Amino acid sequence: MLADKSLKAFLEETASKSPVPGGGSIAAMSAATAAALTEMVANLTIGKKGYEDVQEEMMELASSLPSIRENFVSDIDRDAEAFNRVMDAFKLPKETEEEKTKRRNAIQDSMKNAASVPLAVAKNAFKIMDLIGKVVEKGNKNAITDGAVAVMMARTAVLSALYNVKINLGSIKDGDFVKVVYDEVNQLEGKVNEIEKEILSKVVL
To answer: What is the CATH number of the domain that holds 80?
Structure first.
């Protein structure tokens, strides 16, 4: 499992000739680090003098973020598995018409999955930007730059994952599927930079 490797080993494998882990896994890792930093800011706010009014909200945030972070960590491997499934589909035999049809369908199914996995990462990374906004606005001001890094990592995760979605859409023949996914991609791309800018405007140093 990629997620179980040490950071050094993971980066060395990323740098190797192996196509996985690639950009999709890195997008998921970026989202996981965004969630971790958000959780940290919430934890650094809990119990601190001057933040009594937001204690309950920060405790709720801190308790919700571990599962979100772990889901992103799992996405590191899910993205790699989706790519491997595409490669396996291309390796299927294609001697007979029946084999060609089976291979063609397997390729299309695997490409849809390879687009759906990073799309889910992008959508979930976008969702946590709301949580990041809360810790930046209400959390411990001594950790506000950690919140700023969190929102930048979340933005990177969204846009990185969406690039992986789009490259896979180019090989999918199902026009209805492509249209629905492209609509979601365009919506996210249209909002994510604006949300990041709004949150960063609250970081006063």
So the answer is: 1.20.120.680
